Amino acid sequence: MMGLIEMLNVAPDTVAKLVATLVLLILFFLLRFLTCSLAKRKINDPVRFHHWRRVIVNTLTIVALVLIGRVWIRAFDSLATFLGLASAGLAVAMHDTIANVAGWVFVLWRRPFQVGDRIQVGDITGDVIDLRLFQFSVIEVGNWVDAEQSTGRIVHIPNSRILRDPVSNYESGFQYIWHEIPVLITFESNWRKAKELLGTIAAEHAEYLSEGAEAQIRRAAMRYLIFFKNLTPIVYTSVRESGVLLTLRYIVKPRERRKSEEAVWEAILDTFEKHEDITLAYPTTRFFKAEANRPDGHCR
Questions:
Q1: Which domain holds residue 148?
Q2: What is the average pLDDT score of the chain?
Q3: CATH at residue 264
Q4: Is 290 a member of any domain?
Q5: pLDDT-derived band of residue 221, with 50, 70 and 90 as boundaries?
Q6: Which residue has the higher pLDDT, 19 or 225?
Q7: CB of 195 within 8 A of CB of 235?
Q8: Global pTM?
Q9: Residue 157: which CATH number?
Q10: DSSP for 43-110, written as a single string
Q11: Taking 60 as the threshold, does the pLDDT of residue 281 lie above it?
């Protein structure tokens, strides 16, 4: 061993620090294994166990980085020298790694989301299932699946994306989103009756959510500038080429969009079927034939 060290021309002090670093890494993995095993035996709830496992791993990681840093800082004459050399080298060689660690610290500090939240980062939407030092993982929703239901894929996203891309949280602060269902009926239909019927259907399926949403807004307003004057369902009227468009707007929990929309549409179809003066519209083309006037002034 000593012959190999002499051949590589490595200073004994550097060798000692490499050995100390190796020992610290072994202790880190050993402590992580023991503490996680103990937590697994004590905690039966998978959600609580995952939370405490992340706390244990994050805490041990920070402690290990601090201890290893103290070992290697001593190899330089001063802290200023170490920081100067380290920053120059790391800025070039480890730009992405440093950005990922910075993103991890930002998540722990500012908490834009936590495990279990549904978020969108850039063009990726999913439910957060894991948060690590360099990346976090989500169960993808949306993409080729309608109503933002799960695709079943796990997407690993570098933590640095949090610092570059907008992050949308579906559940932090205000745990509801607005959902709209467009219902197109023909021009010949009784649109006033249809609008009244849609309002009744919305009240039956979504109005009960307004009470819980109002309480959440009051709590969220203490931290964010969130306010809505009207949380009850509403139906808006507009006109399209093929008919009168009645848009039903109501609040819903993000994970219940598809289930809610299915229930509302089934109620709409059952209700409209009972009224002959209301007909759903679809894109149509109408042709008009203008007849030439006869010489006697009468149309043919």
A1: 118-169
A2: 78
A3: 3.30.70.100
A4: no
A5: low
A6: 19
A7: yes
A8: 0.61
A9: 2.30.30
A10: ---HHHHHHHHHHHHHHHHHHHHHHHHHHHHTTSS-HHHHHHHHHHHHHHHSHHHHHHHHHHHHHHHH
A11: yes
